[in-house]
Amino acid sequence: MRGSERGQAALLLAVGGLYLLATVLAGTFLNVYLWKSRQNFAMIGWFTVAQQIAVGLSFWLGGKWVKEHNKMNALRLGIAVSGFFYLLVLWLQGETVHFIWPLGGVLGLSIGLYWLAFNIVFFEITDVSNRDFYNGWMGLLGSLTGIAGPWVSGWMISRWQGGQGYRMVFILSLCIYGVAAVLSFGLRKRPRGEAYLWLEPWRELTRRRSPWRPVAAALVFQGIREGVFSFLIGLLVYIAAQEESKLGQFALLTSAVSLISYYAAGRWFKPRARLGGMLAGSLLLIAFLLPLLWKVNFTTLLIMGIGTSLCLPLYMLPMLSTSFDLMGVSEESAAKRVELVVLRELSLMSGRLLGLLIFIAVLSQSQSLRTITLLMLVLGAAPLGSWVVVRGLLSSKCSQNEQY
To answer: Which of 40, 86, 127, 388 could form a disulfide with 170 if both were Cys (CB 3.0 to 4.6 A apart)?
Structure first.
């Protein structure tokens, strides 16, 4: 990697770190904010469904803009719309729960535009020899922001009682989004691609022996877990502790463990270890859910959270790196990197929606804590399905420089 590209990679990581910090500051307590207005799991579930639909559409529709025009503007617009979402929440205040679908759509649009552009630029800056390293750094930044963000926002919410604390947190996030947007202007404009192929994700999946078929299936399994766990864990911690500061402490402790595990993974995790590492990570993710079958309280949730943070990189790094490696396997695939990123995200979105719809359907029959716990165990086993369908590709990766 040339020095100029290393500088751009560092700047991209800085922008990504600020974006993550702003998102974690406000996002950790967003679902709690909604829950305090209306204690309904299905309502939170539908809010997340609206997000995922908007994420998928923004990836697919925004792909043309990112490939044929200025992808940096898409990244900046994603940051700006994130700020706009929290402006809407500040404006609506107690009426927020009555606008779940449009608000979820706005948040999903911001997420889709930002991560579409970010992933494309990330692919262009990195290569197969250093992708695990930079993925490790992204995980490291996510952990650092996860340590600082929730603790600060939890302290602020506890310090200013009522809705004032939430308003202060949302305003702080707005300011950080603004800094990230300004910093993004230091990222160079990337070369434009050829014409955007609207149906290429579908065509790739219908090609015989396409390596993207097992990868897409693996991403669906990943999404099944993510769709529900992304909001449910934080809610359960708050319900168990009944204090925002406890949720901040939970996020601080789990993120501190994640900081160490992502650092270690980014430094020592090599492509040849992906097959065994992903299997071990998948099994451990299931194992650390088992304490919840005994009792759901702050302690057992913390055990689950720390264990998950410790082993998640073993699962996530192979998933991330394998899909990105496939985008660079040939000049043809590299030229279609936007469409392939769209394929990756649509696969994740499909899994997330499936997991969310299962969650909503089951809870429409029973909202008992036992039902929720058993459902978490079932959905939490989905990463093992990822390993089963992608193990053939992983086993073919014998060395760091070998390509699929």
So the answer is: 86
